[in-house]
Amino acid sequence: MQLAQLLNQTQGTLPLSTGTTALPGTSLTFFERVQAAFQTTVDSLIAFLPEILAALVVLIIGWIVAVLLGKLVRKLLSLTRIDKALDKVGLKQVRDETGLELSIARFVGDLVKW
Questions:
Q1: Cα–Cα distance between 8 and 84 in angstroms, integer?
Q2: Rounded to an integer, what is the distance from CA 113 to the centroid of its chain?
Q3: Neighbour tally for 22: CB within 10 Å
Q4: What Rg do the C-alpha atoms of the chain give, in angstroms?
Q5: What share of the chain is helix, strand, coil (3-state, %, to 5)?
């Protein structure tokens, strides 16, 4: 039973002397209505499951592509020897003074990945 139908039917509920309520013309108890609500929730989740799986597939594929692109950019920048060129300009002195192991190729590759 769909939730909307159940809600429409519950507007005219009549209390019974046993503490349960039933819909006019039916014998739907409180527990049956709770069970129907849970069943509707489970049905909705099952119907939504393919969309969740598709989103996970897109996320995983996107992550793989990002990692590969990051590695490609890092490799290309390493081949251009940009780190050595920047060392000649003065980056080596900055790295020595700060104690940081800074690689522009690695930095840009990670930036592309993320």
A1: 74
A2: 18
A3: 17
A4: 31
A5: 75, 5, 20
